[in-house]
Design goal:
seven-stranded parallel sheet; 694 residues; nine-stranded mixed sheet; alpha/beta; Rossmann fold; 24 helices
């Protein structure tokens, strides 16, 4: 049966729906985030309006809408404090005064809908206001029966009305084909989930307020499609031929001796996993995630030495030159002790040194290269690149990662991130990779005391900073912006530098992203050498800055940073043998959620706990600090307070996909055929191509 089922009605353009012309289709596509019938069906309601029928405004439910009769008295155009114009209607309901506000309304339209002295019915959320009542943007009709007691409420865009979406949605629901069930029957029974088409109907055209089951069903469909696709990629990668890079351990032993400390248990485990992958005759693709200061660079350096021991070259790519230089210094110390040269290749490396590095990589005299995206430029050739490492992997696109790996023949790849990744994101975005995780910190790292302070205490804070600098301590002062902006009240680095330089003349440096690289590097070098004691900076110092003598970091307007970014910044201190502190200076009038976020950072240094809490509080948002505006992790995800359930569904889908592909690797069983439809429905055709390629 599956072979004869067509998804064509769902993948057809929106303009094929009856009553939907080109202009209406464009508006629907903007609201739904796609121009196909399927995209409209996946534009799930934001909520369901349940409208109680009441006589008196006092009977209206506190947390829902009401339908009641009103009589308009007069209308006027008013202006809000923000300057926005709106229409205000003075009316009565059961003899009580009622103020109705139509935001962005036209007075002629309102007068036509609510003619003075005539009874009309409205549906809205009614609130007490002064000695009467008020509501905003109600639905208006001539009778109570004309106002639906239950209605789906979808997200709209300008010039698109709720009734237009409702009509198009009804037409889209009519196109739903009779699809085979791709979910396991036992799972559906256990969870009480409806079928796919029934779930869409229950949400878009409900006869009664729907419970959580339809939304969960659709969220699980999406999660399973993603996990199946990643599972097929993993399976294909495992079958891809690679090369065995088995080392002798001689160079690793020399580097470890120079390091002077034994590996932690976590580092030993991670290195063992990476070494086994390198030595296996298949291509490695592994993610090494570890909290700030967990010792990822040491693990990567030892793995790179294993590749060199096996006769191959290795390269490490970082997203910024600052971080690349930091890695080059670290690897230079470790690998140099083993007699292995490490060369830097970045935009600022020019002239004779650049020619020397390029020639050394091409003829193999330079075994290890560290650099930025300059590493995969057209003119860069390796004699035998066998192992590529990418740091802060989420700052690179997949294409850039592949370009670096393409410099070698079947090169193994290790990608690293210091941003702890919640399990949901790990399964979703990095599911094609094997994962090694570093927990804890190497010996010698000091705990960091984190405190919160209101911006009103800034004079006191400056006084305490003066005392710290007089004791010889070094500190970072971090702000969000570079220069002042009339449209943004963020504290700017240049203005804060000028202010602090007046307080501490000759002791303050400045580093931000718009400075020339040489100027910024000098500011960082002066701070590292102690020539300046206080460095005013933006998040340019978030990664790659290692000054063990720095013991204080102050982050201004801290509530405007992501939790993961704050955690990364805090990791700039506590890198030496002295006690360190982090002061989160926040704006006045914090919201409860902003305060909760900052308190999480105050109460724990565990980056994985912080990342999970960030995901919970932001509902699947920008846990990595790198998502583009408007980009959704899942289209059909469970929102609001139930994001834990969404994470559970992703984990369930991961296990389901693994078991399914183990039992039916070609998806040729009846359920497998149905799952192929699921993959196509969620635009996972690339994964199906892997099946066809074997």
């Amino acid at each position: 049966m599956t072979a004869t089922v067509s998804l064509a009605p769902l993948l057809a353009p929106l303009s094929t729906l009856p009553g939907v012309g080109p202009k209406r289709a464009a508006l629907l596509a903007e609201a739904a985030g796609g121009d196909r019938v399927r995209d409209l069906l996946f534009h799930l309601p934001e909520r369901h309006a349940v409208r109680a029928l009441v006589v008196h405004p006092a009977e209206a439910p506190l947390d829902g809408e009401a339908r009641l009769a009103v009589v308009a008295q007069k209308h006027r155009v008013a202006v809000a404090g923000s300057g926005r114009r709106y229409v205000e209607t003075r009316a009565t309901a059961a003899g009580e005064p009622l103020t109705i506000r139509f935001i962005n309304g036209w007075i002629a339209t309102v007068e036509r809908q609510l003619p003075p002295g005539r009874e009309r019915w409205i549906a809205a959320r009614i609130q007490a206001e002064g000695k009467g009542w008020s509501c905003v943007n109600p639905l208006v009709a001539a009778s109570a029966e004309a106002l639906p007691a239950l209605e789906a409420v979808w997200g709209l865009v300008a010039n698109l009305t709720r009734s237009q979406v409702q009509a198009a949605m009804a037409a889209a629901l009519e196109t739903l084909p009779d699809l085979p069930e791709w979910q396991d029957g036992a799972l559906l029974a256990r969870e009480g989930w409806p079928g796919f088409a029934e779930a869409l109907r229950l949400l878009h055209a409900p006869a009664a307020p729907p419970d959580a089951k339809p939304r969960e069903r659709l969220a699980y469909d999406e999660a399973l499609a993603g996990q199946l696709a990643l599972g097929l990629v993993r399976r294909r990668r495992r079958l891809s031929p690679g090369r065995a890079l088995a080392g002798t351990g001689r160079l690793q032993a020399a580097a470890l001796a120079a390091f002077g400390h034994p590996l932690t248990v976590s580092q030993t485990q991670a290195l063992s996993e990476i070494s086994a992958d390198l030595a296996a005759p298949r291509r490695m693709l592994r993610l090494l995630q570890g909290d700030v200061g967990a010792g990822k660079t040491l693990v990567a350096a030892l793995a790179m030495l294993q590749a060199v021991e096996a006769g191959a070259q290795a390269a490490l790519m970082a997203p910024t030159e600052i971080l690349a230089r930091q890695h080059a210094r670290t690897l230079g110390r470790l690998c140099g002790a083993a007699g292995v040269e490490v060369a830097l290749l970045a935009g600022s490396v020019k002239g004779a040194e650049r020619r020397r590095v390029l020639e050394g990589l091409a003829d193999g005299r330079i075994p290890i290269a560290v650099g930025t995206h300059a590493l995969f430029q057209e003119g860069v050739q390796f004699r035998d690149l066998g192992f590529a490492v990418v740091d802060e992997q989420h700052r690179f696109g997949v294409a850039q990662r592949l370009m670096l790996a393409g410099k070698g023949e079947a090169a193994d790849m290790l990608v690293m991130t210091a941003t702890p990744i919640p399990r949901t994101l790990q399964l979703t975005h990095w599911g094609e990779m094997s994962v090694s995780r570093l927990e804890g910190k190497p010996a010698g790292r000091q705990p960091i005391v984190t405190r919160l302070a209101d911006e009103g205490r800034l004079p006191e804070i400056i006084g305490r900073m003066r005392a710290a600098l007089e004791r010889g301590e070094r500190a970072y002062w971090v702000v969000r912006a570079i220069t002042e902006n009339p449209h943004d009240d963020s504290v700017a680095a240049e203005e804060r530098f000028a202010m602090l330089d007046r307080h501490f003349p000759g002791k303050v440096g400045l580093a931000h992203g718009e400075l020339d690289v040489d100027v910024r590097e000098k500011a960082l070098a002066d701070f590292a050498a102690g020539q300046t004691q206080l460095l005013v900076a933006t998040t340019v110092i978030e990664v790659g800055v290692d000054v063990p003598e720095a013991t204080i970091i102050l982050i201004e307007q801290a509530e405007r940073f992501g939790l993961s970014a704050l955690h990364q910044l805090r990791g700039r201190v506590g890198r030496g043998n002295k006690a360190s502190s982090c002061l989160l200076v926040h704006s006045q009038g914090l919201t409860p959620k902003e305060r909760e976020r900052l308190q999480i950072l105050r109460d724990t240094e565990d980056g994985f706990v912080i990342a999970e809490e960030d995901l919970r509080l932001r509902g699947g948002g920008d846990a990595l600090g790198t998502r583009q505006a408007g980009q959704e992790l899942f289209r059909l995800a469970i929102r609001g307070e139930d994001t834990r359930r969404q994470q559970d569904l992703v984990a369930m889908a991961h296990g389901d996909a693994e078991l399914t592909l183990e039992r039916d690797p070609t998806l040729s069983s009846p359920r497998g055929e149905a799952l192929r439809l699921l993959l196509r429905l969620f635009d996972k055709e690339d994964a199906i191509a892997f099946l066809k390629a074997g």
